[in-house]
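hey
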């Protein structure tokens, strides 16, 4: 769907917006009056999400490999022709995890490179090519990191390295872009309830020879509030950071996790 050139509605880009946290963020931004541009590599799921959300507001799908600069560049170059000559808000949410859980001596470098491309390089590429479309003196970026980017997490070196890097970029860009009126913040989700987390628990229970219930309890006990968060909790924080109420909030790393006390290989996962 193309937007009429005269429409001045706020526009937001959400990477990895076809499912999970990204979908929840997109939906919440629609409720707040944004046009939402979903950047995702999964065309089938992305088109389905747009179809489901279209009744709630102006939603557009762009098939993008966020770890590839030519793909990201092409997506942004097409936006003015589709009626989106300006971008007000970017949410760098796209991410994958290392499925192997390898110790240092067994890290798969191909997997390392892919995780960093999607989880870290994509943040740079999206911000780089969105920047020319920000309105003068106006704009905000939210980067989705992880509690793993604060605590570290054994056997998840690629994921942790990327998420710590996201925090470093957030702090640096807040300094660089602050004089232009562009705010940059990071959100660190904890364990997010849902099908993905259920799968993590099932795999860990099988590997350890214990019940899924005991694994789930271990995850919950590492958090002061002893509960998983929901994707909608992240959406609410994103909308706050995009709002005028947060006009002087920049360079911040905000955990939405129920207060994680520790992470270990015997308990909670930091994977989103």
């Amino acid at each position: 769907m193309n937007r009429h050139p005269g429409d001045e509605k706020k526009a937001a880009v959400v990477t990895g917006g076809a499912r999970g946290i990204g979908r929840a963020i997109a939906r919440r931004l629609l409720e707040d009056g944004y046009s939402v541009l979903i950047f995702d590599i999964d065309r089938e799921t992305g088109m389905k999400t747009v179809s489901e959300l279209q009744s709630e507001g102006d939603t557009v799908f762009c098939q993008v490999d966020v770890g590839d600069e030519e793909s990201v560049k092409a997506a942004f170059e097409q936006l003015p022709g589709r009626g989106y000559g300006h971008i007000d808000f970017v949410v760098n949410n796209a991410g994958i995890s290392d499925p192997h859980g390898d110790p240092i001596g067994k890290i798969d470098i191909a997997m390392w490179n892919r995780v960093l491309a999607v989880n870290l390089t994509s943040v740079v590429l999206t911000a780089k090519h969105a920047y020319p479309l920000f309105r003068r003196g106006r704009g905000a970026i939210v980067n989705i990191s992880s509690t793993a980017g604060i605590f570290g997490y054994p056997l998840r070196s690629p994921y942790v390295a990327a998420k710590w890097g996201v925090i470093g970029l957030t702090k640096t860009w807040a300094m660089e872009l602050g004089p232009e009126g562009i705010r940059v913040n990071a959100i660190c989700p904890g364990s997010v309830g849902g099908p993905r987390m259920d799968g993590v628990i099932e795999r860990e229970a099988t590997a350890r020879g214990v019940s899924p219930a005991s694994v789930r309890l271990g995850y919950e006990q590492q958090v002061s509030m002893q509960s998983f968060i929901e994707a909608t909790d992240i959406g609410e924080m994103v909308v706050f950071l995009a709002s005028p109420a947060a006009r002087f909030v920049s360079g911040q790393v905000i955990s939405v996790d129920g207060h994680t006390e520790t992470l270990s290989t015997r308990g909670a996962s930091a994977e989103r």
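The radius of gyration is 18 Å. The chain has a mean pLDDT of 91.
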